[in-house]
Amino acid sequence: MIAPELSLVLVGFGHVGRRLVRLLTEVADRLDFEWRVVGVATRHHGTVLNPAGVDVERAAALVEANQSLDRLDPEPGERSGLDLLRQASSLLADDAAEGRLVCVESTVLDIERGEPAITHVRAALEAQMHVVTVNKGPAAFAYDELESLADAVDRVFFFEGAVMDGVPVFNLVRETMPAVRVEGFRGVINTTSNFILSALERGQSFDLAVREMQGRGIAEADPSLDIDGWDAAAKTAALVNVLMGGRITPHDVARTGIAGVRTADLREAIAHGRRVRLVASAGRRGAELIARVEPEMLAPGDPLAELADTENALYLRTDLLGEVGIVQRESTLTQTAYAVLSDLSRISLRLRDWTGR
Ligand SMILES: NC(=O)c1ccc[n+]([C@@H]2O[C@H](COP(=O)([O-])OP(=O)(O)OC[C@H]3O[C@@H](n4cnc5c(N)ncnc54)[C@H](OP(=O)(O)O)[C@@H]3O)[C@@H](O)[C@H]2O)c1
User: Fold this and answer.
1) pTM of the model
2) CB within 6 Å of ligand 1 — which residues?
């Protein structure tokens, strides 16, 4: 069987983008597709477009040395991510027409409107590219529109890495739970805040815990998005929209972050066998969808109470399967990059189905 070759246009080449290209190289012999990167866009580190293939290790090294990618470009020029997508789709028109051109979107989360990620996803789909994103913005703010557009142009809009990294959440439900209705969910889905709460319990400082998460590339570029509950609210909105048919944005999620949680509160909770965790939840009240993110005092025996450091878990309430739990014991950049890998693999499967190879 011939493995399809995917041409990747990376919009965003930060922690996740760089870990992705290295992971794809490390496990190349296990992949069911071939790949090459044909373009990379950043905001402050230039862009490169080369249909013959970009040297990704050199590109990663340049960004890590805070230098510009322009020097790798055969015809360097000032371009935005949007410009790069348009130029790539015109230079690689055959790949686009054959469904082998893929936009991998990993720009930073903008909690006001989900931009520029939504514009990137829309433009890529309109240019006949498949889209894989780890950004929560598109599914949290514009899922319906983008999914309909993807259907209309016969391309895919995948975002497994937007919630709980590479552990399948969206794909699990959409691929393996036909006819099941998700009535609600409850989970700990923001790694940085869970790590901070665990550090405070150990008597460590809030600031040190934030720096540790920044050092590992896990905290959001602006860590207040994690601390104030916005990241969890964006994930909650994405889950509600995709799994429960909602039409909400992160601004519709009732939200309290962890800034007000004091070490004394955590110690007091532990003294009574309890734990405080930042819990994201959603449910239906009649026709209404209720979603919230807030620190909760959890009773002993609550599975969310056991989650420490970088552990995450999500419990879905379903009508046909009862409660289904997904637990992630480790959350590193490898797991996030794996989410993209798994979405690329699904595109490759689809290409095989198309061509009957
Ligand atoms: N890190 C994680 O553990 C994790 C886990 C799950 C999901 N995510 C999501 O993945 C995304 C990326 O995370 P990250 O950790 O890789 O962030 P990051 O290290 O800050 O990288 C973001 C990248 O996007 C680029 N960028 C920003 N705005 C752009 C624009 N308008 N056009 C083109 N490029 C732009 C940045 O360029 P410059 O550096 O030149 O500014 C950088 O290359 C975020 O949406 C995050 O929420 C991250």
Assistant:
1) 0.96
2) 11-17, 41-45, 81, 106-109, 116, 134-136, 161, 165, 217-218, 220-221, 333, 336
